[in-house]
């Protein structure tokens, strides 16, 4: 069987993200489907790693080449990037990284560019120390687009560097332990028996962090629903919603279903309607429910137009609105967000969030609870959105203080929560 050139696959993936605006999470599964576990993991490492440090690699290419590759040769620009990433950030021996990267030109039907790729990478090896010093003196050293850097500096004058530092790291792996089978302490013992090291969270009884991320196939009882991979900050959603078994609950923008299944772990007899606008992602909700042996009604629906998929008299005891957002709180998990988002997207997202929140609100019972959530760290989408809503909806009242989690090295992602109740008009 012919061995795939992993560098060519990685370069094609990066090309599709940066030239065609696709996300890594949507394109990688198809590119990885014929690869074994080790090769698949290397492609993942190269692609996600390049997205973390993209400005640095672009800077080096600008210094090393007089003319950028364009047109049909553009994908070779990303082959060079793949080569640079390996030399800088992996333990792959330099000679192997160079050889495989140069061979990618053959696979991509550009054999005439083999010499160019080889020359640029060897030149980098010679000039690496001085190039690193030059890069550290640039604004690009923060690995974030300038528009996002400005927004973070404005919103968090004391903390923006900590946020950026956290964004540039690999994410920690958090598990949510299904208390219907084991306590987190019991599951930690199981992990230890399997040679996996973990630690409990002092505040959330079902949260457990793996010291070193592991494949889900290695987690005891994963297929039986004993544990779910879910970031720490995302696990606060069900706790704030505080569902009860008698509740009728709407989980809006529910895909891929992590929060739906968590609600059902807390209140197994609650009636849940899980809705998302994306029909492909809705399938993931069903898959997660099946793995956890849970039941919920699942629908495709647009939160702006609930009258199209809800009876006008239907009302819910609790609504979780995990609103579409910039995802600026989960950059370390999805580093391509930095390069796919634009500054102009934020105003559009704020408008969309407001429409969904306003149009879903009538479906909450008087005395009911709505939890508004985003995986964003930008105030426009979070606290300002809620302040604007409260200024218009006179029967809406905030319960407690909103929570703004910021990404932290040994903690959760960036997340925002506001808990609202509906008073009688």
From TrEMBL:
One of its GO terms (biological process) is regulation of DNA-templated transcription. Keywords: Cytoplasm, Methyltransferase, RNA-binding, rRNA processing, S-adenosyl-L-methionine, Transferase. GO terms for molecular function: RNA binding; rRNA (cytosine-C5-)-methyltransferase activity. S-adenosyl-L-methionine binds at residues 253-259, 276, 302, 322. The active site is at residue 375. GO terms for cellular component: cytosol. It catalyses: cytidine(967) in 16S rRNA + S-adenosyl-L-methionine = 5-methylcytidine(967) in 16S rRNA + S-adenosyl-L-homocysteine + H(+). It comes from the Bacteria. Residues 163-423 form the SAM-dependent MTase RsmB/NOP-type domain. Belongs to the class I-like SAM-binding methyltransferase superfamily. RsmB/NOP family. Specifically methylates the cytosine at position 967 (m5C967) of 16S rRNA. This is Ribosomal RNA small subunit methyltransferase B. It comes from Zophobihabitans entericus.
């Amino acid at each position: 069987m012919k061995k795939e050139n992993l560098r060519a696959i990685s370069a094609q993936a990066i090309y599709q993200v940066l030239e065609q605006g696709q996300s890594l999470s949507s394109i990688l599964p198809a590119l990885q489907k014929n690869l074994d576990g080790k090769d698949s993991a290397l492609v993942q490492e190269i692609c996600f790693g390049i997205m973390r440090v993209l400005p640095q690699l672009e800077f080096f290419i600008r210094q090393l080449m007089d003319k950028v590759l364009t047109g049909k040769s553009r994908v070779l620009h990303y082959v060079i990037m793949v080569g640079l990433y390996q030399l800088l950030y992996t333990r792959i021996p330099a000679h192997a990284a160079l050889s495989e990267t140069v061979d990618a030109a053959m696979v991509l039907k550009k054999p005439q560019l083999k010499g160019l790729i080889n020359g640029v990478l060897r030149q980098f090896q010679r000039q690496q120390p001085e190039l690193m010093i030059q890069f550290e003196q640039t604004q690009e050293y923060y690995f974030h687009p300038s528009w996002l850097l400005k927004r973070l500096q404005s919103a968090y004058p004391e903390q923006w560097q900590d946020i950026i530092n956290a964004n540039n790291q690999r994410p920690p792996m958090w598990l949510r332990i299904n208390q219907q089978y084991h306590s987190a302490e019991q599951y930690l013992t199981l992990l230890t028996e399997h040679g996996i090291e973990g630690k409990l969270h002092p505040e959330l009884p079902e949260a457990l962090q793996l010291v070193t991320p592991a494949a889900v196939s290695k987690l005891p009882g994963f297929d039986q629903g004993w544990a779910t991979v879910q970031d720490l900050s995302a696990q606060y959603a069900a706790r704030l919603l505080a569902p009860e078994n008698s509740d009728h609950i709407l989980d809006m923008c529910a895909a891929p279903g992590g929060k739906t299944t968590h609600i059902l772990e807390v209140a197994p007899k609650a009636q849940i309607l899980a809705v998302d606008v994306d029909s492909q992602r809705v399938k993931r909700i069903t898959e997660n429910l099946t793995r956890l042996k849970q039941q919920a009604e699942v629908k495709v629906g647009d939160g702006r137009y609930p009258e199209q998929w809800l009876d006008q008299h239907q009302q819910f005891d609790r609504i979780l609105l995990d609103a579409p957002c910039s995802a600026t709180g989960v950059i370390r998990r999805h580093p391509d967000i930095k390069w796919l988002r634009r500054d102009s997207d934020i105003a559009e997202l704020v408008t969309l969030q407001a429409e969904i929140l306003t149009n879903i609100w009538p479906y909450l019972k008087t005395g009911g609870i709505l939890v508004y959530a985003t995986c964003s760290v930008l105030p426009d989408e979070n606290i300002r959105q809620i302040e604007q809503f409260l200024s218009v909806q006179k029967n809406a009242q905030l319960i407690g203080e909103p929570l703004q989690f910021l990404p932290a090295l040994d903690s959760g992602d960036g997340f925002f929560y506001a808990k609202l109740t509906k008073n009688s008009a």
